[in-house]
C-alpha cells in the first residue's frame, strides 16, 4: 500500500500558464469598488496564488449599471446601479487576466451624467472620456510548482534493533 504523497508547493518568481487541479485551501476575499463617476475599479490590481479560492464582492457606487467580467475565468455578471454582486471561484490557471466592465457605459454616452464633453471629472482619469473597456483592472495569479516529497525521511526510519 502506497502511503499518501505529501505535495509541497513553491511559488515561482514568474507568471506561468499551466492549469492545475491543485487547491491550496487558502481563501482570499476582496472587495472591488466601481468608483462613483470615475469609470474605474478600486483596487485595479489583485494578486493571488494559483489554487487559491477567491471570494469577490463587487460594489457599484454609480446610479447606473456596470458589469464585471474576467473572460479567461468565464465570469461575466451585470453589476446593477448602486448594487453589490459576489463571485467565488478557485483560480485554476495562472497568468495575468484582465477584469473589466462588460456593460456599455461610456462617460460620453449619456447626457444625464452631466459631464462636459463626456470627460470624467474626478479621480486619476479626470479629463478623459472613459468607456467600459477603459474600466478595467488586472487579476494576477502566481503559478505553483508542485514538488513530490514522498521519499522516506532517513532520520525517521523505524529501527527495532533495540528490541529486548
Ligand atoms: Cu462600466
Account of the 3D structure:
The protein has one domain (24-109, 116-146): Immunoglobulin-like, CATH 2.60.40. Helices cover 0% and strands 38% of the residues. A four-stranded mixed sheet has the order 3-2-5-8, with no helix packed on it. A three-stranded mixed sheet has the order 4-10-9, with no helix packed on it. The chain is mainly β and 164 residues long. It has strands spanning 7-11, 27-34, 41-42, 45-49, 53-60, 66-70, 75-79, 84-90, 95-100, 136-142, 144-148. It is built from no helices and eleven strands. Strand 2 (27-34) and strand 3 form a beta hairpin. Residues 1-17 and 148-154 have low confidence and may be disordered. It starts with 6 loop residues before the first strand and ends in a 16-residue tail after the last strand. Bound molecules: copper (II) ion. Copper (II) ion binds at residues 66, 101, 103, 105, 132, 135.
Explain the layout of strands and helices.
Elements: E1 7-11, E2 27-34, E3 41-42, E4 45-49, E5 53-60, E6 66-70, E7 75-79, E8 84-90, E9 95-100, E10 136-142, E11 144-148
Parallel strand pairs: 2-5, 4-10
Antiparallel strand pairs: 1-11, 2-3, 5-8, 6-7, 9-10
Bound molecules: copper (II) ion (CU).
| CATH-defined topology | Immunoglobulin-like
| CATH homology superfamily name | Cupredoxins -  blue copper proteins
CATH class value:
Mainly Beta
Order of helices and strands: EEEEEEEEEEE
CATH architecture classification name: Sandwich
Concise account of the structure shown:
With 164 residues, this protein is mainly β. Helix content is 0%, strand content 38%.
Amino acid at each position: 500500500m502506497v502511503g499518501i504523497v505529501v505535495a509541497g508547493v513553491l511559488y515561482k518568481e514568474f507568471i506561468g500558464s499551466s492549469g492545475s487541479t491543485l487547491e491550496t485551501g487558502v481563501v482570499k476575499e476582496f472587495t472591488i469598488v466601481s468608483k462613483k463617476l470615475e469609470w474605474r475599479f478600486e483596487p485595479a490590481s489583485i494578486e493571488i496564488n494559483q489554487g487559491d479560492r477567491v471570494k469577490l464582492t463587487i460594489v457599484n457606487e454609480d446610479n447606473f449599471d456596470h458589469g464585471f467580467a474576467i473572460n479567461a475565468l468565464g465570469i461575466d455578471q451585470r453589476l446593477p446601479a448602486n448594487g453589490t454582486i459576489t463571485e467565488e471561484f478557485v483560480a485554476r490557471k495562472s497568468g495575468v487576466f484582465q477584469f473589466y466592465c462588460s456593460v456599455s457605459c461610456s462617460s460620453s454616452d449619456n447626457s444625464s451624467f452631466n459631464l462636459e464633453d463626456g470627460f470624467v471629472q474626478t479621480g486619476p482619469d479626470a479629463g478623459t472620456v472613459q468607456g467600459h473597456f477603459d474600466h478595467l483592472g488586472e487579476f494576477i495569479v502566481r503559478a505553483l510548482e508542485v514538488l513530490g516529497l514522498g521519499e522516506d525521511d532517513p532520520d525517521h526510519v523505524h529501527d527495532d534493533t533495540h528490541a529486548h
